[in-house]
Amino acid sequence: MSAGALANLKAFWEGLAPERLAGIGAVYAPDAYFRDPFNEVRGVKELERIFGHMYETLDEPRFAITETILEGDRAVLIWDFDFRVKSWKPHVTQRIHGLSVVRFGADGRVTYHRDYWDAAGELYAKLPLVGPLMRFLARKMA
């Protein structure tokens, strides 16, 4: 797989904006599989839907890809995701650190995308009602 496909994917995510969602099919195959801690979907339309929802619930979501590793048709992207939650502390920027494992098809488009990040520590632990319980459990299990 060429480094060009990885560069295109990196540019897509770092430049993601609501008006660019319609172009997701240039980067993802029509039946691409996507999974993260909240979603498991297949297909470009479903990808458009879940990332459209992201823009409905978050202010200024931004991905910064800090490192990439390419091996054959597979790549790993290490990233930071900054955002503000519209309905909870909208003035505070949150950050999630994560990584994505992707596979490219013969045409250079993504056929598989799996995100790995710590939903408990990086998100749930910061929520008002759930957070204290999550932090308590983490202390007890350490």
In short:
With 142 residues, the chain is an alpha+beta fold. The protein contains 4 helices and 6 strands, in the order H-E-E-H-E-E-E-E-H-H. The protein has one domain: Nuclear Transport Factor 2, Chain: A.
Largest sheet: 6 strands, mixed
Radius of gyration of CA atoms, rounded to a whole number: 16 Å
The gross shape turns out to be globular
Overall pLDDT confidence: 88
Question: Could you explain how this protein is built, in words?
Answer:
It is a single chain. The protein has helices at 3-14, 44-57, 119-122, 130-141, and strands spanning 28-35, 40-42, 58-71, 74-85, 94-104, 110-117. The chain is built from 4 helices and 6 strands; from the N terminus they run H-E-E-H-E-E-E-E-H-H. It is α+β, with helices and mostly antiparallel strands and 142 residues long. It has one domain (3-117): Nuclear Transport Factor 2, Chain: A. It has a 6-stranded mixed β-sheet, covered by helices on one side. The protein is globular and about 45 Å long.
